[in-house]
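Input (structure):
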């Protein structure tokens, strides 16, 4: 049977039948689901994030998870609802991660701003950023890795825990310790706000 004719036939199947077909190894069924939902999931993510690349990344993550975990997915309702909720949750995680990053950056700026301004008059932001990078590199290896995944890669505590095979509590503690260490090491610097 010609591929486009076969794909056309799959277009007539329900989402749940397509998922079952994919679970049985039919990748064409996955392609139909992808085409069916990509646009609406992207719009859902974009409406909240107002950032094209982030919205595309979110939708790609949802479909990657569907591809890798299809056999384990137990639907209690429609596949569409599952995909919408998965997209919404990933958007919320991304927003929380960005908020946490901004909160820590703001907190760090506040503590640095409280430092003695007399000795800070001639230090440029570039020097401060370079010093901060040196201090981050000086962190213990695991703490630095966790901190950089959180701050530079904007991963959630859960994502970091999974990637490094740590508990979420350990990740949270490592980030907290890194921030405390950096505040202490950078106490005599300040940002010019």
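Output (sequence):
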């Amino acid at each position: 049977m010609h591929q486009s004719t076969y794909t056309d036939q799959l277009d007539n199947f329900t989402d749940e039948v397509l998922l079952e077909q994919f679970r049985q190894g039919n990748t064409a069924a996955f392609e139909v689901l992808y085409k069916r939902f990509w646009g609406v999931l992207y719009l859902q993510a974009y409406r909240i994030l107002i950032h094209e690349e982030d919205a595309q990344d979110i939708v790609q993550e949802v479909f990657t998870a569907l591809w890798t975990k299809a056999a384990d997915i137990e639907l209690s309702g429609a596949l569409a609802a599952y995909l919408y909720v998965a997209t919404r949750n990933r958007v919320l995680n991304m927003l929380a991660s960005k908020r946490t990053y901004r909160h820590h950056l703001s907190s760090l700026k506040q503590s640095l701003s409280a430092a003695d301004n007399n000795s800070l008059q001639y230090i440029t932001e570039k020097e401060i950023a370079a010093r901060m990078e040196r201090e981050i590199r000086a962190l213990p290896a695991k703490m630095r890795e966790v901190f950089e995944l959180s701050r530079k890669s904007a991963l959630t505590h859960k994502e970091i825990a999974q990637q490094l095979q740590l508990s979420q509590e350990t990740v949270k503690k490592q980030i907290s310790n890194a921030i405390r260490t950096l505040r202490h090491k950078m106490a005599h610097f300040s940002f010019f706000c």
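Notes: The chain has two domains: 3-91, 115-185. The first helix runs from residue 3 to 10.
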